[in-house]
Amino acid sequence: MSNIPHKIQKNIDNIEVLKNQVSQWRKLSMEDLFQSVKEFEKTSRLEVSNYYNYLFNDVKFSETLLDIYRSNADNAKLVILLISAIGNMIQRYNLPESLDMYEFMVENAYKKNVGPYVAIFLPRLEHFKKYSKKWQYFMNVKEMSPKKVAESSFEVIMELHGNEIPEENKEEVVHYFNKKSEESNNEYGKQHYLDLANKFK
Question: Distance between alpha carbon 72 and the CA centroid of its chain, in Å?
Answer without folding.
Answer: 18
